[in-house]
Write a structure and sequence with these properties.
With 324 residues, this protein is of the alpha/beta class. It has 13 helices and 7 strands. The strands form 2 sheets. It has a 4-stranded parallel β-sheet with strand order 3-2-1-4, covered by helices on one side. A 3-stranded parallel β-sheet has the order 6-5-7, with helices on both faces. The chain is globular and about 60 Å long. Strand 1, helix 1 and strand 2 form a beta-alpha-beta unit.
């Protein structure tokens, strides 16, 4: 029976993880799952702009779908697994699903023109050890300041939403984001990441690093801290979205970059030697880690599916070996 899955939500990282989940179930159930055409409601990109055809997925608009509608879990892999299990009464084991999920994430079929752009840009790197530094910060400050206020609300729904935000980022980090000034947060985190980069680069004279950020000013702030650590710009391999002709920076630290460029950044991170991130709730860097088998060196992910699958495998997802 075809399945119309309608739960996709969130940014590119969330949607790639959701796609990997649906492909994993298609492989296990030997059925065709219908996937929503739009990748991101906030952008003009559609599924066909990013992916080649993949077995087990038929792309359609929501109103075209036929079959069992499933979608309460939105993007979360363990929730998707539970939704399918409850609705279809299937007998797939959690272990089988988890293995197929990692395999599916590593065998996503991207359009050739996107792969060409990726190789054109990142193929210029001549170093074997490239650290990917993912800083997602500016767009989190206001949210966690609001969450701290909402946590003391008498409205149970509001309080529950605030509690969820704290759990996603971590209570200590949420409070830090809520009470410290942006400058204090930047300084503290940049010093921490810069020390790690300095240690890695000193250990390997040919190593380099790339920076993936949520605002243009973040690169400037971080580069200043790197200079204080004695790290030159010559060791820096710029991220794709920081190249002039591909950059489009929005207001309030929000980067208004195309979904295609963001995907190329994910592919770039997936080819790195290690990922440094300043927060544990980013699915953007998690996708890169799983797809490329790249270790996350700082701020280990806190997502439910990451911890659950780690329990199944007995190791982090980036250490899981697959045939694909």
């Amino acid at each position: 029976m075809p399945i119309q899955w309608i739960g996709v939500a969130g940014g590119l990282g969330n949607r790639l993880i959701a796609l990997g989940s649906i492909l994993a179930l298609a492989k296990s159930l030997e059925t065709e799952n219908q996937f929503p055409r739009s990748i991101d409601p906030a952008s003009s990109s559609e599924y066909g702009d990013l992916f080649e055809e993949m077995k087990g997925i038929r792309v359609c608009d929501r109103h075209e779908g036929k079959g069992a509608p499933i979608g309460k879990a939105r993007w979360e892999p363990m929730g998707i697994f539970t939704d399918f299990k409850r609705t279809l009464n299937h007998s797939i084991s959690l272990e089988e699903y988890c293995h197929h999920f990692v395999e599916s994430m590593r065998s996503l079929r991207f359009r050739q023109d996107i792969l060409n752009e990726y190789h054109s840009h990142y193929g210029r790197a001549s170093v074997s050890n490239t650290l990917a530094v993912h800083i997602r910060r500016t767009d989190m400050l206001d949210r966690h300041r609001l969450s701290l206020r909402e946590y003391f609300s008498n409205d149970k729904r509001v309080k529950r939403r605030a509690t969820h935000a704290f759990r996603a980022l971590g209570m200590m980090k949420s409070i830090q984001y809520a009470v410290l000034s942006p400058e204090a947060i930047r300084t503290t985190e940049n010093k921490y990441l810069a020390r790690i980069i300095a240690r890695e680069l000193n250990a390997d004279s040919r190593a380099s690093y790339s920076i993936y950020v949520d605002s243009e000013s973040e690169i400037d702030f971080f580069q200043q801290q790197l200079c204080r650590q004695g790290i030159s710009d010559g060791r820096y391999f710029p991220s794709y979205c920081n190249v002039g002709q591909n950059s489009s920076w929005g207001t309030f630290g929000k980067r208004n970059t195309s979904t295609r460029d963001a995907l190329i950044e994910i592919l770039g991170m997936s080819a790195s030697s290690g990922i440094l991130q300043n927060m544990s709730a980013s699915t953007f860097s998690i996708c890169s880690s799983i797809m490329g088998g790249v270790p996350i060196l700082t701020s280990q992910p806190t997502q439910w599916f990451w911890k659950s699958m780690q329990d199944v495998f007995g190791k982090p997802l980036y250490d899981v070996r697959t045939e694909s």
